[in-house]
Amino acid sequence: MIIEIITTGTELLLGEIANENSQWLASFLNEHGYTVAYMTTVGDNPERMCSVFRGALRRADLVITTGGLGSTQGDVTKRAGAEALGLPFVLFPEESARLRAYYEARGRTYLPAQERQAWFAEGAELLPNDAGSASGCAVTAGGRTLIHLPGPPFEMKQMAEHRMMPWLIAHFGDQGVIRSLVLSIENAAEVDVEKTIMDLVEAQSNPTIALYARPGYIAVRLTAKGQNGEEAMERIRPVAEQIMERLPALRYNLEEDARRDLVDLLTARRLTMSAAESCTGGLIGKLMTDWPGSSAYFMGSAVTYWNSAKEHLLHVAPETLERFTAVSEETAREMAEGSRALYGADLAVSTTGYAGPGKGERGEPEGLVYIGVSGPAGTEVHRELFLGSRKSVRYGAAEKALFYAAEYIRAHRLGEASREERGAKEEV
């Protein structure tokens, strides 16, 4: 089944807000076995929106829109959808009554404009909104289905998970699952990696193979579809083994990203983590605390931009800073160890580098970052050279620190002994 996601709203085209809905919805649909083949963004112009909907309905089996379900003059998504499908746009009296009760229960006056939320294409099946007032809907005509979801991300996610997906399963059945495995190839050019595995790329079907340049490494992503996760991974495994025979790869399952991989490890093995950040300026802390439930495993991050902060908070030796500078393997090592001691964490990461623009105090290249990882098995430091803007360097360093933390846990089997001990106690 081919899917197209259409996000609506002039604010997206103006760059006023990030298009979070497309990214989340694509990941959610792929996880449930639906192939997202197209993404489009269109402003709140009825004619252009209707034209976009018609084009999408010609090339996709299912079109899902987000945004434009509210009560203002600019909320025209449902009307444009009805026109694109050639269906009358009608008032649903039962929805009008529900909206009136909804607003009155909250002590708000039900204004005539709010009744716009009660209009839908004729024959639409409503998708209740558990987090807001505007219902979504699903409507089928001419063998094509159009689903409207709300624009606010929290409302959209709630409706997609609890209303849309059950509707899709009821009407189209179980689509299986899609899983991905990423092989990280370091110290190699993308073109050289492609040349080495070109025969596999040309023969791909299920799984598919894609190459991406990532900060500090080349990612080879293998994606397969199966009736369940185990079957999908079984399809991936032999192709991954062929690639790993040809290329020195660090293997880890991204599914979404390095953060998700690390969070799964920390959670499963009941480990805690902390950070010490210089050039990343708190981004590691942000990435980790963006994830729900992070208080169970992430203890905190010390942003030590000045040398004095590194000395006083993390106990980096003044001699280290004087002899090797703040951007060095030695400083990264002491920062990671200092963070682990400060927070009492099982594992700690550190970042120190030159995000740019400009070279370091001793002529070091822009983008040079040292990443430290400290744990019970000792402290490891990785030297990275990131390309791109200051923002790219900082985010690249933060993401790579999370990657190295996950690799440290695996390499040294952190938490496995305690997990086995817990299992033995539970059996007793």
Q: State the helical fraction.
A: 40-55%
Side by side, the strands of the main sheet go 2-1-3-8-7-6
Net shape: globular
Stretches where pLDDT falls below 50 for ≥5 residues? Answer: 252-256
Number of helices: 16
Class inferred from helices and paired strands:
alpha/beta
Sheet-strand content, in percent, reads 15-25%
Strand elements, count: 17
In round numbers, the mean pLDDT is 90
Oligomer: single chain
- N- to C-terminal distance: 49 Å
- Biggest beta sheet summary: 6 strands, mixed
Radius of gyration based on Cα positions:
26 Å
Architecture overview:
The structure is a single chain. Residues 252-256 have low confidence and may be disordered. The chain has 428 residues and is an alpha/beta fold. β6 (125-127) and β7 (136-141) form a beta hairpin. It has helices spanning 10-13, 20-31, 46-59, 77-85, 93-105, 153-172, 190-196, 198-202, 229-246, 258-269, 283-289, 307-314, 318-324, 329-343, 390-411, 416-427, and strands spanning 2-8, 35-42, 62-66, 89-91, 119-121, 125-127, 136-141, 144-149, 177-185, 208-214, 217-226, 249-252, 273-277, 298-303, 347-353, 368-375, 378-385.
